[in-house]
């Protein structure tokens, strides 16, 4: 169920793989995203199972309708889970609230200041990286009192597989040179993780990239991960989750 799971003194965080759920067919088995042809009731049960595995109550889960932007929503103290607000990042200092970001090639970012008890998640695709949703999330967390933030970059398509048109690579690399990449088959590509890591580093955030120790390319990892590039519209969704323990 979890490709990565860590419990700090106050914070629990995890990134899912595709195992341990109820979905079948191309969504097998822990698909956490609806709107791709999977049964929506099954998806809800999968989300609940992932939240429980984190040690939390599914009723405390907060999700978003992600739109490839840089808007950040604050989950306020005492606020019930909204009906998937339109945003690409969530932050909170509310103990017990579980923040969830869903992806299928884009970067899932999980952020935490364990001492301050402030956490966040962000969805960073190509547009989100260009708009710098990572730094927007950090700033929102600092508004809640965070000072020493760590960001984890979870399973995503890697810079050797994220093929793009030459002009797109030129446009993005013109703003973010570190994003310039080339596929393993020698075509233009982008390394979104490298760009987001640089943005986070410039924002004074300690970055932990799961790819430093684990095989987390969603495109290459067919056994463990979903990939929109590989599967198309029937791709399932992975998630990053985080909470401050109540």
Automatic annotation (TrEMBL):
The keyword Lyase does not apply. GO terms for molecular function: copper ion binding; hydrolase activity; S-methyl-5-thioadenosine phosphorylase activity. It catalyses: S-methyl-5'-thioadenosine + phosphate = 5-(methylsulfanyl)-alpha-D-ribose 1-phosphate + adenine; adenosine + phosphate = alpha-D-ribose 1-phosphate + adenine; inosine + phosphate = alpha-D-ribose 1-phosphate + hypoxanthine; adenosine + H2O + H(+) = inosine + NH4(+). Signal peptide: none annotated. It holds the Pfam family Cu-oxidase_4. Gene3D superfamilies: CNF1/YfiH-like putative cysteine hydrolases. Keywords: Copper, Hydrolase, Metal-binding, Transferase, Zinc. CDD domains: YfiH (cd16833). InterPro entries: Cu_polyphenol_OxRdtase, Cu_polyphenol_OxRdtase_sf, Cytotoxic_necrot_fac-like_cat. NCBIfam families: peptidoglycan editing factor PgeF. PANTHER family: PURINE NUCLEOSIDE PHOSPHORYLASE LACC1, UNCHARACTERIZED PROTEIN YFIH. Belongs to the purine nucleoside phosphorylase YfiH/LACC1 family. Purine nucleoside enzyme that catalyzes the phosphorolysis of adenosine and inosine nucleosides, yielding D-ribose 1-phosphate and the respective free bases, adenine and hypoxanthine. Also catalyzes the phosphorolysis of S-methyl-5'-thioadenosine into adenine and S-methyl-5-thio-alpha-D-ribose 1-phosphate. Also has adenosine deaminase activity. This is Purine nucleoside phosphorylase. The lineage of its organism: Bacteria, Bacillati, Actinomycetota, Actinomycetes, Propionibacteriales. The gene is pgeF.
């Amino acid at each position: 169920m979890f490709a990565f799971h860590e419990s700090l003194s106050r914070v629990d965080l995890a990134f899912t793989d595709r195992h341990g759920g109820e979905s079948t067919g191309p969504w097998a088995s822990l698909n956490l995203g609806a709107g791709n042809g999977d049964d929506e009731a099954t998806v809800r049960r999968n989300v609940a199972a992932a939240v429980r595995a984190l040690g939390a109550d599914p009723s405390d889960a907060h999700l978003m309708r992600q739109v490839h932007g840089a808007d950040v929503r604050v989950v306020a103290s005492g606020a019930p889970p909204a009906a998937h607000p339109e945003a690409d990042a969530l932050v909170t200092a509310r103990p017990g609230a579980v923040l969830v970001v869903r992806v299928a090639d884009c970067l899932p970012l999980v952020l935490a200041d364990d001492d301050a008890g402030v956490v966040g998640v962000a969805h960073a695709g190509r547009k989100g990286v260009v708009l710098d949703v990572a730094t927007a999330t950090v700033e929102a967390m600092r508004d809640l009192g965070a000072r020493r933030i760590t960001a984890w970059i979870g399973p995503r398509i890697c810079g050797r597989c994220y093929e793009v048109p030459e002009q797109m690579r030129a446009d993005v690399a013109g703003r973010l040179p570190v994003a310039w990449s080339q596929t393993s088959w020698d075509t233009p590509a982008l390394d979104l993780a490298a760009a987001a890591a640089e943005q986070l580093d410039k924002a004074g955030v300690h970055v932990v990239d799961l790819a430093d120790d684990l095989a987390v390319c969603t495109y290459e990892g067919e056994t463990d991960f979903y990939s929109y590039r590989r599967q198309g519209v029937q791709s399932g969704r992975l998630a990053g989750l985080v909470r401050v323990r109540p």
